[in-house]
Amino acid sequence: MPSHTGSGTGTPTEAGAGTGTSSSGAGYRAVFRVREFRFVFAAHVLSLLGSVVAHVALPVLVYAGTSSALLSAVTFALGFLPQALGGALLARVADRFAARTVLVGCDLLCAVCVGAMLLPGMPVAGLLALRAVSAFVQPLFAGVRAAGLGEILEGDAFVLGRSLIRVAAQAAQIAGFAATGLLLLALSPRSALLLTAGGFLASAALLGVGTRTRRPVAVGRVRGGTRVLFADRRVRGLLALSWLPSAFVVVPEGLAAPYTDEIGAGSVGVGLLLTAMPVGAVAAELAAGSLLRPVTRERLVLPLAAVLLVPLLLFALRPALPLSLAALALAGTGMAYTLGLDRRLFDAVPEELRARAMTVLSAGLMTVQGMGMAAGGLAAEFVPPHWAVAGSGIVGTGCVLVAVRAVRRAARSQRPPGEGPLSAASSVPSPSRASGP
């Protein structure tokens, strides 16, 4: 897998050949010229659309059958909570099996789970269990796909490929939930779930046909497992810098309904508040990926992360809807720091541990976001919503600054190649790992 220092194992080829590219600085269009990435991205979009439909249709289905708001909320939460456990238990699978096998297997398992939900007479407990199983494998899928992009895209193209995956997810948040709500006006929840199953099956087919089979990097047992990632000071700091801003930036979204009630903005205000931050994030990420050089993006990682949550302090003034939207959009632009952070984390982890590291990263992100929303809701039980949001900006900025300092210290004391816990835990990679179309 590639790095800025030339330590990658992918082989540069002509754009569109399907095995790799090193189109540093060529922009997003060069990434889409790689055939294999086009298949991965299309599969991502299809499975993402299926997931969005399920996030809305399943709680509606459960509520229609039980009239229980609690069970409806639990159904929604089960799309996220099992991911922490999945990341912890499945991380070792990420670097032990071929990426295509893992990705196709995860998609097929999710399709089977959704199909089983459609069986006549399926009890609510069964729906919840199937929902939890499909969420359980999501960190593994996301981690293996992220590491696999390093096999397909080289140099800055890897960063831009990861960026496009995030942009698609943000776009789904902007438009997907609203579109699904309209879809449920025409279809029953069960009929809508057929689209979810179809999305997973189509994703599996695209990944099976359009990606190459590569032998797993960790051909031997990697000593220390996931523990060795956290034993490395540099990786530990980068993971913290990935997770902490996300843990606090979701608080305004979790409090969108009570805050709009506080300022009298109504249900329309809720929808606008939920889209403001993703809009800012998508705009900033596309601009940074298109206009900034890779070295500039990496230099901006720490400054952008340090100030990302500062706009939330404006909520101490209990701003009206227009200023609230501006503050959230501005906070969203700070998420462009993730482009440079992706490169730093990828370079900090040995090739045979990258799939595992990305699985841990994905599981951690979902976990801290859920914890952040829960903490914000708990705070709002004791103080007005606008103070809870402003408080998340204050506390979050302090925590992120600690992580920034840790990353800087780790960079200054970085050990030479071949030393440290990660190097000691590495296993010998296979000399030839690509086969098949």
From TrEMBL:
Cell cycle among keywords: no
Annotated GO CC locations: plasma membrane
Membrane topology: Multi-pass membrane protein
Record field: compositional bias (Low complexity): 421-437
Keyword Membrane: yes
Segments forming a coiled coil: none
Chain segments annotated as transmembrane: 39-63, 69-90, 192-211, 237-257, 263-288, 300-317, 323-340, 360-380, 386-407
SUPFAM superfamilies reported in the protein's UniProt record: MFS general substrate transporter (SSF103473)
Subcellular location(s) per record: Cell membrane
Region described as Disordered: spans on this chain: 1-24, 412-437
UniProt entry keywords in alphabetical sequence: Cell membrane, Membrane, Transmembrane, Transmembrane helix
Gene Ontology MF terms: transmembrane transporter activity
InterPro entries: MFS (IPR011701), MFS_trans_sf (IPR036259)
Cited Gene3D superfamilies: MFS general substrate transporter like domains
PANTHER family: INTEGRAL MEMBRANE EFFLUX PROTEIN-RELATED, STAPHYLOFERRIN A TRANSPORTER
Protein name: MFS transporter
Organism: Streptomyces nanshensis
